[in-house]
Amino acid sequence: MTMVTPASEAQRDAWRSKALPEVERVRPGLWSIPVPLPIPLRYVLVYALELPGGVALVDAGWNTDEAYGALAAGLKVAGYEMTDVRAVLVTHIHPDHYGLAGRIREVSGAWIGLHPADARLIHGRYDSAAVDALVEQERALLERSGVPAETLDELAGASLMIRQFVTMAGPDRLIEDGDRLDLPGWDLRAIWTPGHSPGHLCFAEPERRLLFSGDHVLAKITPIVAVHAQSVPNPLADYLDSLAVVRKLDVDEVLPAHEYRFLELAERVDRVTGHHEERLAEIEALVGATGGGVTCWAAATRLTWSRPWETIPPHMRRAANNETLAHLVWLEARGRLRRVSGGPDEPELWYPA
Asked: What is d(CA 284, CA 352) in angstroms, rounded to the nearest whole number?
């Protein structure tokens, strides 16, 4: 396996030892602030970009008092207060990136920026009046995937608990692919990188040769790319295409939202692309070996995961099913597998083409 070179040994060592890394001055005018998360990822790296008279943030963290306090303390190390935040550039609307944005805006008056494709999902995902419909859509998807009836309700609602970590806040500005952000002293350019979410954004800084990669490219793990109730039909195709886009960038350092900063962007993109190629081959072979057709759920239970299937908690089993479905859909679109829709109460079956 190709290993990337950490840009910060201390940050890499903290990740390995399951510790919270220190606030770091990455470059003149640029800070990395770890904000703790109540999930195995442990923290999100929020980046503070110094401006005349304040700072802009890339991502925000979950909406908890602990996270807010950690972000405030990190800003203080850099010489700023929460009231000095002028902008929050959200890479995507998952709670660990978007959850605190509204609270920061309430305190500072900062503007929030988000890609339109993710902005369209906010109401359905986080508005209490709309979330029941989203759960029902997810339940129907899982039912078509062949999830057993006794676990359908549990899996369909498995992510409801994370809504408490979000202050629902519509964006003040929509950031499109190729936009240059109005941040004095910075030449920050938005790159639309759909896949992990429909509106995921990376931000490139050509003069400083930096890429703020969000969850799109990480040092060791790969982001979840899944078919779900709010996804596009073929998110893996989008993800692989947008990986190819960022691979062409000439940067010296990648600043992701998790784990640690690293140097070799192209090499890491090649490794992530290779991982998905291996996964696609594994799934295609599994479907071919069944002969009589297999459901998405049955395929997911037989794939190689980082731990035994029996030990995977329900919300992660749902993610595993939906990731598997994303790979099945990609193979179907390439004519390598075919899908046979069942009756009203029957799941879809997958066959070799």
From this structure: 7
Per-residue confidence (pLDDT) for residue 251, from 0 to 100: 98
Quote the pLDDT of residue 156.
82
CA angle 10, 14, 19 (to 5 degrees): 145
| Distances, alpha carbon 277 to alpha carbons 84, 271, 327, 343, in Å | 45, 10, 10, 32
Using only C-alpha atoms, what is the Rg of the chain? Answer: 20
Structure tokens at 319: 């993610």
Pair 69, 45: CB distance under 8 Å:
no
Full strand arrangement of the beta sheet holding 43-51: 24-27, 30-36, 43-51, 54-58, 85-89, 111-114, 173-174
- Whole-angstrom distance, CA of residue 116 vs CA of residue 124: 14
| pLDDT tens digits for range 72-130 | 999 999 999 999 999 999 999 999 999 999 999 999 999 999 999 999 998 877 776 67
Is the pTM higher than 0.85? yes
Give the orientation angle of helix 149-156 with respect to helix 131-145, to 10 degrees: 140
With H, G, I as helix, E, B as strand and everything else as coil, classify residue 63. coil
Give every CB contact of residue 306 below 8 A, 6+ residues apart in sequence: none
Tokens representing 167 are: 């202050």
Out of 108-112, 158-162, 296-300, which region has the weakest mean confidence (pLDDT)? Answer: 158-162
